[in-house]
Fold this protein.
Amino acid sequence: MEVEIVTQLPQEDCGLQHSIVRFHNGNIDSKRKDKSRFFRREPLIIRNPENGARVLRYAMGNPGTLSIVKKGIAVDYDAVDVLGVRFNREVKLEVRRASSFEIYRWFWQHPDMGIRLSIRLGVMGGVLGVMGFLVGIMGVAPLLLG
């Protein structure tokens, strides 16, 4: 989806603990049936093609308190700062669904230390678990084969 204007989220929706992007309700499918629209709480990548900057945010509809046009989004100050755009000015941004790899990469480099540490420990635990499994198989294989 192409975005032409960015508005500011209300203060209660801002911050790393929320990380949301609000859309016009015509762009959100709460029933998860129409793949041409975004689903609520779906991780999305917002990309600025002019400088290559990108952020990950979760899709939400408009609660009625904001004026969001069909080709517009509402994000917090941190997202605008990373993307290098300004509020209420004409912009050219791309919004699309995030892949699993992009989600892991975003959380690997997340600004919040607790989230960054937890994803790194989880990945390290998975790698060590696979290594332990392989060592165990190598120890049992000679007994089974010979």
Remarks:
- The mean pLDDT is 93.
- Strands lie at 2-8, 20-23, 28-29, 38-39, 43-47, 54-60, 72-75, 90-97.
- The chain has three helices and eight strands.
- The longest helix spans residues 113-145.
